[in-house]
Structures are given as structure tokens and as C-alpha cells.
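Incident log, structure service

09:12 report received: a user says their structure output differs between two submissions of the same chain.
09:20 pulled the input from the user's history:
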Amino acid sequence: MEATTVEQHSRRLASSPRAFLVLVGFVAVCQLAGALGAGATDSELYATIERPPLAPPGWVFAPVWITLYTLMGIAGWLVWSAPRAGARSRALAWFAVQLVLNAAWTPVFFGIPSFGGGLVIIGALLAAIVATMIAMARVARLASWLLAPYLAWVGFATYLNAAIWWLNR
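09:34 re-ran on a clean worker, output below:
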């Protein structure tokens, strides 16, 4: 199956109010996953633990994640708006897996707190993002590229998580 083009997605969005509502729904679900995580975040914990070099101040995380969740929602919608096929279903399944892992990380890292448990989850999340991007590229290349900043940020977050685990054992 050839990947869907941006022009095909644009036509679908412009011609269908339902497509627009689904786009809003995808973005909302991703933002909700982030909001659930934010509810479990203990900013006092982040401020008091030993952090590695390059650790950003706490205020950086909210705008970064809002942007990333929006890009994730658009990517999910791009795949959803492609013609139904096995590749589309696999891409959406991987999308769901990575979103669940994403939502699971914060309560483990901050809520329990378990820096080692968070490291296990974020490692699985990194792998799931790569699998999602590969699956999405077969359906809608742009969707895969929209996840590139997310992959980069989670890679950086993995460094932070590993260093925090090491420094605070």
C-alpha cells in the first residue's frame, strides 16, 4: 500500500466535518493522556532530587508536552484518515500501545515514585515509538515524521530518567 499524501489528507479534512471532529478527538485523547500524567507529577519531587547535567527546569516540560501531544494527535488522525487496510490497523494499534506506555510512565516515576520502574517503562516506550513510526510510515509518511520530535524528546527523557535513577539510588 502506498502512503497517503498530504493533499489526500487535506481534501478529506476540508470535505468532511466528521474528519475534523475526529482530528480534534485524536488531539484531545493525546492531551488527556498528558493531563492524566500531569496529575501524577510531583513537581516538588523533581525540584528536590539530584538531577544530571542538562536537566531542564520543571517549567519546560508543560509546553514541550503540549506541543508533542498535539503532534501525536495529528499523526494519529493522519493514519486514521488513510484508507482502511491492515497497515493502517497495525499503525493505530502501535499508536495506542505507545500512548498507554506514555501515560503509564508518570505515575510510576512520580507517583510511586520508582525511578527504576520509570526507566523500564520509558525503554519500552522508546521501542514502541520507533515501531509506531515504522508502521505509520507505511500508511502516511507525514504522520511518522510528526513523531520525530517526540522520539527525540523521549530519548532525552530516557537519559534524564537513567541519570536520575543512578544519582538517587
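09:41 both user submissions now match this output. Likely a transient worker issue. Closing.
09:42 reviewer note: Residues 122 and 157 are 8 Å apart (CA to CA). The domain at 6-167 is CATH 1.20.1260.100 (Ferritin).
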